[in-house]
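ok trying this again, last paste got cut off
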Amino acid sequence: MNKLSAPITSHQIDKTVYALGDSLTWGFPFGPDASWLAIVKNQLEIRAVNHGLNGDTTHGMNNRLEKIIKQVSPGAIVIITGGANDAIAWVAPDSVLANYRQMITRVAVARCLPVVGLTCPISEEPFLSRLLEYRQLLQAFTQKEKLPTIDFFPALAGSDGCSLNPRFAVDDWHPNEAGYRQMARVALPVLRRFIIPKS
């Protein structure tokens, strides 16, 4: 078990998922009931808590997590997905990685399972280029630390492999309802690996 993973086994994981993120977790512009998390909740028949906040950065997420994690029972799954608003603010990649590391550590110390969400593509430069820097750094980090990952990016990327596919977009930054369904399709097989059905 690596030092950043929660010291729990699959048999200690319950059927509760917390998702910490920005508007892409919240479900903007449709609301939480249309979010990818709501779709996953209904399909897996689990309890899911949406802690998405429109406009939030990884720094803000880390600050919120300090309070949120105190209300989370050991064994829960905590999905952490951010970065788009950091790109708008032109936050340095190393700072984004540091925020992720702190959040993952908080989750692990609480004896929960941290799952890293790699966020969706966007279609506005120069912010896309900065987001791709975050992505490269986080991919290397999660692989090195052997952390469970939900990679939303490829399923929503357009023909160029980088920008948000117009088929799944309501604007240059946010998925449409079909896009949120795509995100759910990506998340489902990852979460099924960890959630043990109740007998």
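PB: full thing came through this time. The two ends are 27 Å apart (CA to CA).
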